[in-house]
Amino acid sequence: MDRDAKHLSVLVGQLFALHLWEDRTRGELWVPTYDVDAVALISDDFLRTASNNAVDTGTRTFEFRILAPGEHRLLFEKRMGWKFTAEDRRVYLVSVRDGAAPTASR
Question: Contact 29/22 with Cβ under 8 angstroms?
Fold first, then answer.
């Protein structure tokens, strides 16, 4: 199911961003799905591509912070308002390790 998934490795508390192309002229909108207890969405921005026409395209940037160690799945589906199924999908598997320094045992 996730054979085309992209793998990321981050530390707990670390910020990371994912950039996806959107064509809002066509009605495209990336919709993320993730475990809100393990992943926090910090920001969601859209940077339009400068052009001289009426096309509304650009890069959508999602910035996340991981709250818990483990492996977390982020699913993005490209939705269009008049369709019941996703036009496209992207899966990211985020491996998270605790960034705390190991303590010496006695």
Answer: yes
